[in-house]
Design brief:
The chain is an alpha/beta fold. The protein contains 9 helices and 11 strands. α8 runs antiparallel to α9.
Length: 271
């Protein structure tokens, strides 16, 4: 058992809270945690796994990996709420949001931490990957941009200050699985903060289909998320117009299940 003095030293030295949200994808979670376990200077970071009601053993992953915190949720309340829960638990100054299946290198934490602390204009740091512009009202697809113009690192590993989420009272409740972080990067952009992409930091990523969310629910969650973003940032009419156009398209395409979910404003929240 650690003494109070040892515990105090550990909390003080931890600079980064590494967060992984996982639901029923232990085949991705294991390699991600194995890569994290091999990081150099582990005292610089803590590891938090939020398990969203998995039924494949993911909730007991701390039996296999020492020194991690597993937060066990009874159901999948969406990535947005899971990140908020982890942020409230995190003890460090910075958050590293790691997509399930992403494999960090031994020095990834140090490199990204050094980069963000070297320039006060940087709001977030990412490894090489695909990047997007913040969407404009009515757009149904994200627009790819060069790394130098990155505004939104959708589904990418990202390191940023914890205060960025705390200062906006965490990610908004109107989002489920997708696009809750749009509000975060919108506010960073408004504050004049930029995203730094470390082009020479290329991380491997394993992927698998999210079997616990059916296609109609996933699409409804994405469209509901975009509509929420448009309402918050471009006005109620912009959000309503987007929602109406997507609902009518689903109806005319005979995707009645999707249309019903859009009419109900469905999102991933308690699956």
């Amino acid at each position: 058992m650690e003494s109070p003095a040892q515990e105090t030293t550990e909390l003080r030295s931890s600079r980064v809270s590494i967060v992984i949200v996982s639901q029923h994808q232990i085949q991705l979670l294991r390699p991600s945690l194995a890569a994290i376990a091999a990081r150099s200077e582990p005292e610089l970071s803590e590891v938090i796994v939020v398990d969203c009601g998995s039924q494949d053993g993911s909730a007991r992953i701390d039996d296999e990996f020492e020194g991690i915190t597993v937060m066990r949720l009874p159901r999948n309340f969406g990535w947005t709420r899971a990140v908020n829960i982890a942020t409230r638990t995190a003890k460090s100054e910075y958050l590293m949001l790691v997509p399930n299946g992403c494999l960090i290198e031994t020095d990834t934490v140090q490199r990204m931490l050094g980069a963000i602390e070297a320039d006060s204009t940087i709001g977030a740091v990412c490894p090489a990957g695909e990047f997007y512009a913040l969407p404009k009202a009515g757009e149904t697809e994200l627009r790819r941009v060069e790394a130098s113009a990155a505004q939104y690192p959708f589904d990418q590993l990202v390191l940023l200050p914890k205060v960025a989420l705390v200062s906006m009272n965490f990610l908004p409740d109107g989002y489920g699985q997708y696009f809750g972080d749009l509000e975060l990067f919108h506010k960073l952009s408004e504050a004049g903060k930029r995203i730094l992409v470390l082009g020479d930091l290329e991380l491997r990523r394993e992927r698998a289909r999210q079997e616990m969310i059916d296609d109609d629910m996933a699409e409804a969650d994405r469209m509901t998320g975009l509509g929420t973003y448009y309402s918050k940032n471009f006005g109620f009419v912009a959000g309503l117009s987007f929602w109406l156009s997507r609902t009518l398209k689903a109806l005319f395409s005979f995707r009645l299940g999707l249309a019903g979910k859009l009419l109900a404003g469905s999102k991933v929240d308690g699956l």
